[in-house]
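[job 4471] stage=fold_predict status=RUNNING
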Amino acid sequence: MGSLYKRGNVWWCKYYVNGRAVRESTGKQKEKEAEQLLKVKEGRTAAGLPALPRADKICYEEAAADLRQHYETSGDRNLTEADGRFKHLAAFFTGHRLAGIGAAEATAYVAMRQRQQASNGTINRELAVLHRMLKIAFENGKLMRMPVIRKLKEAAPRQGFFERDEFLAVRKHLSADLQVAATIAYTFGWRTQSEVLTLERRQVDLKGGTLRLEPGATKNDDGRVVYLTPELRALLTAQLERVDELTKQTGSIIPHVFPHLYGRHRGRRRTDYRKAWATACKRAGVPGMLRHDCRRTAVRNMVNAGVPERVAMKVTGHRTRSVFDRYHIVSPGDLQEVAQRLSGTISGTIATPKLDSRLVTPQNVSTRP
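[job 4471] inference complete, writing structure tokens
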């Protein structure tokens, strides 16, 4: 049987675990609140569960460290991305008692991030990390209850995509090596930073005409193999020749398909080209277009060119149909084509589907290993 006693203004409790007396502060100045906490500890002990540690001893920093360790051991999340979320959460929650983090504190955090002009989508991703952190703490017996944290309403998914002439106009203003990277993203819908710029020469087979992503190297961990279009085969041949020349000049082995060809980072792998892309879009007269719009464009082009959706999903790396459908953008031109086909049907003739010759041809896209 447990008991309570006072030290100063704070109530302490005494209870037994496996016959051993445990004494600790309840952190409460009111006796009734201390009694409730003691009953919880006695109940968990009777059920064979570990007694919860003192709530006021567990702070945000400890729970965040637990979650990061979980990410490291499970591989559930990219640590670079997670660290970006932790950075903003830590700026607000460091020093907070974990038991004191709830709906009111989450709302205050949202208000702070909105003042910093973060988008609702970005804030929701950060709240998801916070919720995951609290859930891990609850599972580890460091939190007595799960608080309710509500997310914000997000803007509709972006609808940006390129018409062929727009993409060519942007590509013209990029350097030769970046033209190759952009064309891969535009043709196959691969993610620029994590899938295109990370390519190594061993993943390119010019003789067989294939390009592959290794299992575990993609966002969904699935490997991919695609067959090169004639345009991409020519572009990649020229790019590898540039890398060969750089290898001769530096005297070092360069495994990357897209290394820096000039400057102080010469020979190192490119990790980004946002500034060059933004400048190219501005010069092409389409400011504000994103590299990720190439991914949406690839989905639209393959579907419109008659590539089976299951095959297109394999090429782009979309696992779920719902996300794939979100990337399939319908343009005013697509809607006009519907009217033209209906007009031919109503008049008694069957309109023959006419594919845009500028689109990716389905025979050039395959998933055969």
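[job 4471] summary: Residues 225 and 369 are 6 Å apart (CA to CA).
[job 4471] exit 0
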